[in-house]
Structure to design on (107 residues):
């Protein structure tokens, strides 16, 4: 609004902590329905993910959207999406093993 009204943009919007705290790389939403539906929506930021899920009695419908741009192909975003999709297709033990390794070595 400030730019539209030829006013100075408040310095808060240029503060690094504000920029980091408002950059949501993962946007998720649970959309429970009784029908076998799948919803999609895009990420909030260019290097992010939009993840929508519909938990059901015996399954879960999941959509994950990543905008593929040059910045994403050169970053970890594409690799992360590939890892998530692979993990979702593996037995439960694989997911458990991954998180155990991740928590012990990467955090």
């Amino acid at each position: 609004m400030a730019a539209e009204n030829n006013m100075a943009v408040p310095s808060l919007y240029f503060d690094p902590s504000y920029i980091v705290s408002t950059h949501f790389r993962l946007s998720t939403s649970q959309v429970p329905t009784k029908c076998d539906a799948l919803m999609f929506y895009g990420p909030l930021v260019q290097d992010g993910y939009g993840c929508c899920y519909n938990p059901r009695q015996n399954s879960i419908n999941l959509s994950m959207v990543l905008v593929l741009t040059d910045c994403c192909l050169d970053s970890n975003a594409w690799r992360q999406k590939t890892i998530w999709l692979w993990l979702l297709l593996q037995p439960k033990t694989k997911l458990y093993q991954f998180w155990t390794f991740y928590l012990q070595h990467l955090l």
Observations:
- Residues 92-105 form the longest helix (14 residues).
